[in-house]
Records
---
Amino acid sequence: MKERELRRQCRRLLRELDIRPPLDVRLLCERLAAHRGRPIHLMDYPLPVPGEFGVWLASDAADYILYQRETTKPHQDHIILHEVGHIVAGHTSDEDDDELLQRIYPDIDPEVVRRALLRRTHYDAAQEREAETVATIILEWASVLNYVTPAGTGLGAALNGRRGWL
């Protein structure tokens, strides 16, 4: 998908989800889940370093986003938004990887996890760029809206309100 269309799609989705500053990534995920009609479970996990910072796993009934527990909250939010980017861009969930599954679920046979959670394909570089672009778009717009949103309440705030996810 071209970046311009991806930006349009993100802005449209964020308007539909009624996301307002300050950005709350978990609220965005709740609203995206409701919008899509399937839950998104966010799970902090001590993913091995070096390695993946986040993983999106899709089952028939729900989406699971695992993100690195051992990092800062802003980095966790970025990781989550990157994985959300795969969802928004219409990708399929992460690569089928027995080693990764064994690290995440060391006490469960990877085949059992795969059957329960996954129908996965490998992301190519273009899909990774799209997911990162979605995360960046959301963070950029949140930053701009945080800056331009009028402080306070009342008539002054109402008359000088932000334009939203343009």
---
Amino acid sequence: MEAMTFNWLGVLLAALSAFLVGGLWYGPLFGKAWMEAFNITEEDMVKRNMPKVFGLAFLLSLIAAFNLAMFLGPEADIGFGTAAGFAAGFGWVGMFLGILYLFENRSFKAWAVNAGYCTVALTLMGCILGVL
């Protein structure tokens, strides 16, 4: 099997994009809805070790970007990257979150916020990886 090569800059930028989308998604866009859906208070938020949370969140975004790059392959273009990112976000992650949330008796709002983030983040990641 031939070793696959890919653009490390693309992986880094894709990871950064997911991290930044998350900051907007769980901040000004849907932060209050997310906190309400999961019964998280402002007091809960200030108790967290935010450098640890942000550091690990970026590491996980980097792993996800690397995984998506491996899936897309080196010949992916913007169309395939974007479509595959959407399929991964909505079709795989979103649907598996739906299964988990059904068994956990979580609300549709909780699913919509988290599945929406996964869909947008992976679609953008795929687009970036397809362009680069």
